[in-house]
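User: Fold this; C-alpha cells only.

Assistant: Input:
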Amino acid sequence: MNNVMDMVLDFVAGVTKIFVALIPLGVVAGIVFGNTVIIGDVVANLVALVESLGGAGLVGLIVVLILVSLLQNNK
C-alpha cells in the first residue's frame, strides 16, 4: 500500500512540475502570439490571480506563502 501511495505522490509531483514549467512558456507565447485558442490568455489569468490575492489582504498573503512553500518542496 505504501508503494502505491509513493507512486501516486510522485505522479502528482511530476505533473505539477510540468504545469509550473509551462507557465513561463504560456506567458511568452501569449505576448508573442496574443490570445489564441491553443495558448489562451495566460497573462490575463495571472493578472486576475494576483489581483484577487491582493484584494484578499492577509488571507491572500497566507495563501501565497502556502503555495510558494508547496512548490518549493516539490523541487
